[in-house]
């Protein structure tokens, strides 16, 4: 049994019954455990397995009954695995393979890592490419060259580790901070830059804000800005996968932030997936913040993982800054999704090192020191690098080389994208309806044509029109 399997197995049985067990032991007399056969609760002395008398709750075969009101309340889900003395403070444990400095934890074997040198190196190289893209594009926004951007700083292991735990044909639904999945799946940097710059090379024809990617051939579903949109969609996609011949070995992964988990659609998505037994991995990046709201003010439970049992869902909390643990957890989650035909909830504990987006300055609500300290204390890139170096799979020359080539690749791709024109002006009227253009859009197009005819030669208009393919001449025929 792998570590993940060992950790998941007890979690599976950690239904709501478990936290009651210690309390049950405390109520010395078993006569205080009730068996209900009518509205009048009464003492059950005939139960065959004394400690677990059967209750009669709709849809639930057994539930332990307690008579002590105080003992009946609980606010934590305590998985069997660490309910003993080694988890004195209680709470849901966190799965990890590497320690904070990147050393293998005692007892972690190669079989548990289950990774080749080639894949581990590729993971690290991809993790290294992300911050390079982030720095270049963040600055490009600051220089007014693109309108918006969001970085992945601090979450490289959570995103790349999870991507590496899946097959390229698994369906991906993301929130917005997970473009690393596309990098892992091999989306060309030119295609990514074309999207961010919204030029005529953009597969989405510049109709979405930067980083709102969509890539059908990489099974990457279009990003939507309204939080949690993707969760019910993912549940539906999971159900569809089950019903599609030839997709028996595929799952859906659906990412969201811990902040988005406060949306109603989070509940809807998880509950639909659980009840339809859809093969969906809900991967929650708990990065400590929803813009300026810290996790501590976002919810009162034990993180997001504590909600899994509420949906009857297999759940695991993983160290999101340990790329190898994230990969192992996702691989095992996929295996369980398929073997048991049910969704899995993963909570990845990480930290948003960057500002929320280019529209945010996080120094307004957290100290710069806190961020700097975090980068030093728990750095997913350093941990992965140190793991690789320890095995002789990485060295300083490789590090220098990758830093140099990554930057050049990214800047070259950006420059190519920036030189391209925007889509033609009339393209904005296309594709919304498959048949003939409706009258109202025809009128709008004609009005635009009239205005461009009238003002198009003025300096301001001419400059803008010049940025588009066909420079507005495509309007002349309307
Ligand atoms: C329905 C909805 N409400 C509010 C927003 C504004 N908004 C955008 S991102 C965000 C924070 C989300 O935080 P989290 O889910 O933790 O993701 P993170 O940014 O930390 O990756 C908010 C409130 C939105 N996009 N949609
Ligand atoms: C229930 O808990 C409260 C608060 O801890 C305590 O004051 C009270 O005595 C308890 N009641 C019983 C019946 O144990
Ligand atoms: C999703 O993205 C792809 C690629 O950019 C695009 O072709 C498609 O039109 C988008 N779909 C929707 C519904 O926006
Ligand atoms: Mg967050």
TrEMBL record:
InterPro entries: Alpha-ketoacid_DH_E1_comp, DH_E1, THDP-binding. GO terms for molecular function: branched-chain 2-oxo acid dehydrogenase activity. Its EC number is 1.2.4.4. CDD domains: TPP_E1_PDC_ADC_BCADC (cd02000). Residues 1-25 form the signal peptide. Pfam families: E1_dh (PF00676). It catalyses: N(6)-[(R)-lipoyl]-L-lysyl-[protein] + 3-methyl-2-oxobutanoate + H(+) = N(6)-[(R)-S(8)-2-methylpropanoyldihydrolipoyl]-L-lysyl-[protein] + CO2. The keyword Signal applies. Residues 31-54 have a biased composition (Polar residues). One of its GO terms (biological process) is branched-chain amino acid catabolic process. Residues 31-59 are annotated as: Disordered. Its cofactor is thiamine diphosphate. The keyword Signal applies. Keywords: Oxidoreductase, Signal, Thiamine pyrophosphate. Belongs to the BCKDHA family. The branched-chain alpha-keto dehydrogenase complex catalyzes the overall conversion of alpha-keto acids to acyl-CoA and CO(2). It contains multiple copies of three enzymatic components: branched-chain alpha-keto acid decarboxylase (E1), lipoamide acyltransferase (E2) and lipoamide dehydrogenase (E3). This is 2-oxoisovalerate dehydrogenase subunit alpha. It comes from Pseudozyma flocculosa.
């Amino acid at each position: 049994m792998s570590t993940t399997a060992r950790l998941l197995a007890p979690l599976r049985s950690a239904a709501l019954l478990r936290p009651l067990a210690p309390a049950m032991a405390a109520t010395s007399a078993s006569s205080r455990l009730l068996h209900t056969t009518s509205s009048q609760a009464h003492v059950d002395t005939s139960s065959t397995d004394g400690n677990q008398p059967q209750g009669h709750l709709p849809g639930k075969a057994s539930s332990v009954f307690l008579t002590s009101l105080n003992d009946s309340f609980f606010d934590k889900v305590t998985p069997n695995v660490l309910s003993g003395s080694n988890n004195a403070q209680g709470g849901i444990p966190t799965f990890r393979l590497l320690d904070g400095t990147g050393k293998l934890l005692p007892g972690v074997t190669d079989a548990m890592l289950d990774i080749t040198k080639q894949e581990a190196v590729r993971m690290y190289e991809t993790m290294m490419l992300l911050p390079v893209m982030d720095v270049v594009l963040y600055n490009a926004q600051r220089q007014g060259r693109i309108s918006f951007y969001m970085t992945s700083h601090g979450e490289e292991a959570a995103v790349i580790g999870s991507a590496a735990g899946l097959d390229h044909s698994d369906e991906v639904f993301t929130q917005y901070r997970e473009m690393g999945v596309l990098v892992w799946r091999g989306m060309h940097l030119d295609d990514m830059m074309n999207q961010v710059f919204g030029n005529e090379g953009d597969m989405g024809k510049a109709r979405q804000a930067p980083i709102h990617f969509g890539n059908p051939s990489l099974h990457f579903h279009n990003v939507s800005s309204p939080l949690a949109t993707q969760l019910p969609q993912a549940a539906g996609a999971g159900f569809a996968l089950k019903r599609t011949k030839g997709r028996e070995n595929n799952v859906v992964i659906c990412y969201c932030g811990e902040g988005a988990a406060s949306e109603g659609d989070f509940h809807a998505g998880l509950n639909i997936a659980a009840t339809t037994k859809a093969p969906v991995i809900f991967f929650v990046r708990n990065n400590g913040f929803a813009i300026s709201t810290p996790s501590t003010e976002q919810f009162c439970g034990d993180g997001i993982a504590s909600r899994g049992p509420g949906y009857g869902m297999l759940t695991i909390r993983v160290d999101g800054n340990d790329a190898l643990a994230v990969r192992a957890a996702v691989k095992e989650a996929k295996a369980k999704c398929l073997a048991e035909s049910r969704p899995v909830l993963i909570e990845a504990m990480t930290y948003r090192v960057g500002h929320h987006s280019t529209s945010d300055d996080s120094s307004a609500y957290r100290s710069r020191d806190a961020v700097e300290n975090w980068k030093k204390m728990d750095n997913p890139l350093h941990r992965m690098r140190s793991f690789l170096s320890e095995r002789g799979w990485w060295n300083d020359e490789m590090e220098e080389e990758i830093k140099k080539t990554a930057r050049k690749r990214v800047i070259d791709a950006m420059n190519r994208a920036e030189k391209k024109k925007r889509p033609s002006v009339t393209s904005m009227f296309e594709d919304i309806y498959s048949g003939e253009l409706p009258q109202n859009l025809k009128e709008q197009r004609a009005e635009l044509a009239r205005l461009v005819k009238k003002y198009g030669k003025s300096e301001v208009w001419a400059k803008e029109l010049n940025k588009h393919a066909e420079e507005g001449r495509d309007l002349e025929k309307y």
